[in-house]
Amino acid sequence: MTGIYDDPWAYELACSFRDVPAEVDALLGWTVRHRSSGAAARTVLELAAGPAEHAREFARRGLAATALDLHPAMCAYADQQAKERGLELDVVQEDMTSFALGRRFDLVVTMLDSTSHLMTLDAFVAHLDRTADHLNADGLYVLEMSHPRDRLTDAPSVSTGWTVEHDGPGGRVEATVRWGEPTDRLDPVTQIADDHVTMTITKPDAPVRVIRDVVPYRFWTATELSAAIRLSGALETVAQYGDFGDVALTDADAWRMITVLRRT
């Protein structure tokens, strides 16, 4: 049985509620705001990119974009989607804790809480070290994580269930997604939960398809993120946001924990 990460098309559909162009607008705006030179980014690297929606959007806007992911199916899909759209995208299959590309970037991003795949503090620090080595002198690293209240309170910022619709060549595709069940509990020692994922896809004139998976998820608190940054010593925090606007992390409307980092 294949899981959600073995089906990049389904994974991209599940995440299609995101407004990628608006998020890229915010990311590019932050580079101008927070880079010491005030210059717009011209080169970008998306880590743990999956289908590389953000990297493709950067490429569509004329940036030299690279997408890195560990999963071969995701890399193949990202490369195919870019080529079908006539986009110049460099796709690299590598681990986000040990990559060495031999070049540096104005902007590095990790989106969609992909750091939840880093299961230990050592792995997180190694990831930060490798990222710092790939930043230009005034380059920025933007790290999007889930908001801590999602796991630490009874009032999460986001729902674990949602519905998406997509108009394709064969007609309207609908999908319901549940990412996590009430019984999926964090281990109090490791802070890892096995999140049960169920995705039901309905296409015209096709059998209903159900994808089921169990995805290990490592929850990182805000203080643990700060500790990892200090332990690495290669990066420092420039700003934090609670969404892709100017919402503060502590604001009641905040739904993400987005950290902007630069090289020390």
Automatic annotation (TrEMBL):
Keyword Transit peptide: no
A biological process term (GO) from this entry: methylation
Domain Methyltransferase: 44-139
Keywords: Methyltransferase, Transferase
One Gene Ontology molecular-function label: methyltransferase activity
Top-level division of the source organism's lineage: Bacteria
InterPro entries for the chain: Methyltransf_25, SAM-dependent_MTases_sf
Record protein name field: Class I SAM-dependent methyltransferase
